[in-house]
Amino acid sequence: MKGIRKLAWLGLLLAIPVLAQATTTTFSALTVREVGNFLTTLPTDFYGLQPAAAKQMMDTLEVFILDVREPNEFAGGRIPGAVNIPIRDLPKRVGELPKGKPIIVYCGIGHRGAMALVFLRGQGYNVKSILGGYKAWTEAKLPVEK
Question: Residue limits of the Rhodanese domain (predicted)?
Answer without folding.
Answer: 62-146
